[in-house]
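FAQ: What does the model actually see?

It sees only this:
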Amino acid sequence: MWWWLLWILGCVLLVAVVIFFLTAGRRYKVFSEKCLRPPAPLVTDSRQRDDRLKRGFREDRVPPALDAVVIGSGIGGLTAAALLSKAGKRVVVLEQHDQAGGCTHTFQNKGFEFDVGIHYLGQLHEGSMLRVALDQITEGQLQFSQLEQHFDTLFLGQSDQRREYHIHAGKTEMADSLKEQFPGEEEAIDEFMRLMKLASRRTPLIATLKIIPYWLASFLVRSGLLDRISSVFRLATTNHSEMMSRLTKNKDLKALSAYLFYGVPPKDSSFLINALLLHHYKRGAYYPRGGASEFAFHIIPVIQRAGGAVLVRAPVHRILLNQEGKATGVTVLKGQEELEIRAPVVISNAGIFNTFQRFLPQPVQDKPEIQSLLGLVRHGMGSFLVFVGLDGTKEELGIVSTNFWMYKDNDLDTLMERYSSLSTEQVLGNIPMMFITFPSAKDPTSNVRHPGKSCMTLLTMARYEWFEEWEGTKLGKRGQNYVDMKNSMAKEMLDWALTIFPQLQDKVVMVDAATPLTNVHYLGAPRGEMYGAEHNVDRFTPDTVARTRPQTPIEGLYLTGQDVFCNGMAGALHGGLLCASAVLNQILYIDLLAMKTYLKNKQRKHKRTW
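And it is asked to produce this:
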């Protein structure tokens, strides 16, 4: 009986909090159909693009009377800044790199263009919440091309023992294709799909823990009510290997259920996150037309129109605090000089570790509430990328938009554990997993912008410790041993890729590689991680979810991006939505859902009239 009373009390408190958010204080009209415009022609002029993406920091370019300053121009920072701008706030975004975009930036080498973090995206079908959110912060200017229905291929095993599996998009096609490839596993696949759907539909409850006051979230956690509200909280705290062992004994099917690697073995990762990652592509996989830099290119004008700015080559040195301990701005290093930029709100998209361990004074870092937060998470694994320039069009080379994931064994737990336990000397010859993608084959504008050229990107995970001996060295001046290590890993991965695509053997024009130290330099990632704090199962316990929220123990200081929600572009964007909601004291998800519903109903009426 007392469980029911607690459940009713929890629901009443939750409703009361939502009503309070809806009625108390000023409400901002952030989302509007009127902001949407027909897509403008793709801008290919490098000067025009650089003027927006590479606008350098100068003191006279910092807008006056700022409402907020954002550290970092990744999607989490740009989303928060754009939403605040749409609420009428004046925001400056400060980026330490020489171009805006974070993991969405691109670079050119010998006439080839490469993305660094956007390989393919999901849940961008017409009317989806993510698509509506992106349309709002880009005013409808960001366009996407859909990949083939067969969007991923998974290879398990080596040489003549290698098995090949295809993953298809589609409400029913994903499950149907898996059943064809795994006869006898129909029941397991149906249950996996059911759990995927449940995870997707109930994930907003996870986000709710970050929105409601912590005292209420803590009450729901400690009372045990969360498990009675929804089973999604059990999915979040169950490791992937354990859950899949309940569904099937087929090792290949288990491996396929967790093939989207991000540096955590299935036995240490949350089933919820792996289910969400695969479900993300169920309605199709997409790639931005014009390349990944289109994200920043179309978000920045929204910030500028509100009087704000996005400035690069602006390395933030520290967060300024007043005598009461409130954040009041930041300092930027310009040569040997520290320039102060004042604002009543400071938003950090630099990650939880940089924010608390690098930007704050030591006495503040040592505070129990800061140390307690840092104790909840740990650094994610770094990455190693190989960028390959190819001579020829996708038709001439026989490459496709499909992505390829390769594992030398189907026991992903053992494979990843062995790999991460290797020493620097043992890495070469023992890379057991790799992702292969052809960005130029996904973007129909690629051959127009870079005629006769194609590119291939290879990616694997890599420990920072393997490159730690070169810590503190400068880009391009790390020494021959570092170059040899990097080139040897790149060759090993390229040779492996060429076993799948032997026709590319004589078409390779250039090869470059990026290590965790490269990520430190360009992304400001403290240990070369691409996905922020590690996405292990402990990170998704209800209390940790509730505590790793935009608000911090420092008044006026907020977090955004992957460390607030989860990995990837979508996770970073949701981090931005949560952050802007906290700053504005307004649940923007309610407004976004209302906009989504309005646009959907309008489209239905339009179809009926035809």
